[in-house]
Amino acid sequence: xxxxxxxxxxxxxxxxxxxxxxxxxxxxxxxxxxxxxxxxxxxxxxxxxxxxxx
Length: 54
Fold this sequence. Notes:
The chain contains 2 helices and no strands. The chain is rod-shaped and about 40 Å long. By secondary structure, the chain is an all-alpha fold. Helices cover about 95% and strands about 0% of the residues. The chain has one domain. Keywords: Membrane, Transmembrane, Transmembrane helix.
């Protein structure tokens, strides 16, 4: 219980910094970053599934 609360408290300033960073970013930059993140996630999942099943 205490560990969860401490982790939540530690994560708060990071979320604020991420929000302020995103505000400064352009809309095109946001779309490119999101696309890149989704591509990386899909590639990792694909590789994991391939290694798991084969």
